[in-house]
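lol forgot to send this yesterday, sorry. struct tokens for the thing we talked abt
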């Protein structure tokens, strides 16, 4: 079975979810593009978009139409050539509309898992629940008639464990897209010892066709991305608990969030990032990692407490941010949750105190967006961190501690054979988390390296 034949009949489980719909979009467009290439006219490309919610599937089709139109407009020249034998397609608008219809015609929304029984490739993008994943994958493999291969979008569960419990006999690989899949360039590729070599080769070819940056991760719970992010987040929580003794919990959350964003030049503060992912999702990932890794230290009572009070973060169906550690107005944080009062304290009440306690930013400081667009980013960062190292304010001290810890976490992932190389850890944080520099650097101890 060649590349195109493997993609002839695809299923995406969890197709209407935040990750699933992006996977549907990417896979359906790749299938449509193949159908326009010479030699594949006999293949009947079909994508089963499976989800438990019919209403969500209706929203999926609206999402696909708008996203495919945007992509089609960007590659109109290629489409004109692909459709050159269609004399009825005259204007660019005609070509674009035809491509939209061709992509949508491939997608078959369904609420029944039985539709996957004839698929040659199955993407699993459901909730991070081992039992549910195993149940669904086991059902499919026991009824599938096409020697299906499986891609799991799990961000934490070991592939070897999924493979063994679902009896997939090496037909499974971890293909971890980052959110949102249509935009994010990074894919973590996780092979178990049992993963079929031909499946791994196909996965790399598929990622290349999608123009993704592929970073291999070893099959260790949490992999590289969450292996770093979860430990980074737990360090931030520990700093909050330490600072809370002097400044109170609310002010401490504000201060650590500001240090991680403004002083360390990240796209968002650590607690804003936790909110974006979802406190409940982070709790789930931590549980998976804590149960499978030595030490038993990957847990946060503060996250548990907020979830018990109904604070979960995540996004609404329209993509807007739900309240979590922070409260949001028009997509921007403007308050911190106080678990004692079970209400949000507005930034207007706490920012003055927090900023005064932290002290000023280095004189060279620029916002993250300006830094990633800087024509000489490396030299800028070297100068910025040299200046930060000389400062003795609370904010600078917290930033230096945080930067050293982030590097320590990255090196730990290499030493524990989760990542092959330091560069792989840096690529994940640069590409998947949009950091301005990799965590494994020398900005806080001399000679600098991005």
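and heres what i got for the seq, position by position
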């Amino acid at each position: 079975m060649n590349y195109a034949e493997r993609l002839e009949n695809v299923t995406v489980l969890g197709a209407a979810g935040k990750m699933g719909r992006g996977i549907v979009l990417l896979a359906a467009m790749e299938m449509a593009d193949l159908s326009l290439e010479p030699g594949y006219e006999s293949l009947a490309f079909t994508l089963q978009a499976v989800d438990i919610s019919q209403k969500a599937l209706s929203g999926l089709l609206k999402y696909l139409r708008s996203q495919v139109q945007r992509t089609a407009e960007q590659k109109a020249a290629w489409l004109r050539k692909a459709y050159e034998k269609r004399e009825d397609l005259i204007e660019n608008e005609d070509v674009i509309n035809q491509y939209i219809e061709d992509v949508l015609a491939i997608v078959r929304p369904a609420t029944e898992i039985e539709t996957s029984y004839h698929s040659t490739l199955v993407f699993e993008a459901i909730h991070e629940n081992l039992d549910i994943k195993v149940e669904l994958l086991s059902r499919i493999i026991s009824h599938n008639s096409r020697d299906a291969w499986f891609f799991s979008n799990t961000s934490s569960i070991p592939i070897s464990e999924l493979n063994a419990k679902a009896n997939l006999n090496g037909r499974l690989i971890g293909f971890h897209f980052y959110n949102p899949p249509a935009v994010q360039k990074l894919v973590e590729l996780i092979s178990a010892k049992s993963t079929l070599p031909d499946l791994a080769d196909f996965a790399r070819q598929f990622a290349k066709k999608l123009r993704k940056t592929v970073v291999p991760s070893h099959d260790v719970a949490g992999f590289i991305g969450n292996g770093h992010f979860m430990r980074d987040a737990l360090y931030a929580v520990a700093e909050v608990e330490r600072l809370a003794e002097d400044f109170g919990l609310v002010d401490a959350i504000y201060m650590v969030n500001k240090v991680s964003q403004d002083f360390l030049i990240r796209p968002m503060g650590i607690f804003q990032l936790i909110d974006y992912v979802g406190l409940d999702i982070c709790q789930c990932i931590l549980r998976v990692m804590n149960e499978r890794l030595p030490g038993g230290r990957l847990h946060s009572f503060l996250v548990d407490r907020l979830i018990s009070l109904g604070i979960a973060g995540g996004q609404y169906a329209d993509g807007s941010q739900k309240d979590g550690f922070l409260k949001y107005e028009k997509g921007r944080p403007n308050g911190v949750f106080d678990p004692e009062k079970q209400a949000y304290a507005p930034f207007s009440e706490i920012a003055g105190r927090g900023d005064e306690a932290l002290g000023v930013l280095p004189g060279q400081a620029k916002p993250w967006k300006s830094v990633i667009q800087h024509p000489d980013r490396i030299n800028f960062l070297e100068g910025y961190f040299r200046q930060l190292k000389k400062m003795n304010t609370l904010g600078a001290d917290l930033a230096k501690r945080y930067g050293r810890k982030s590097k320590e976490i990255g090196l730990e992932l290499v030493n524990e054979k989760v990542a092959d190389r330091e560069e792989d850890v840096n690529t994940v944080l640069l590409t998947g988390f949009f950091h301005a520099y990799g965590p494994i650097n020398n900005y806080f101890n001399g000679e600098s390296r991005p």
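The two ends are 42 Å apart (CA to CA). anyway ping me if u want another try
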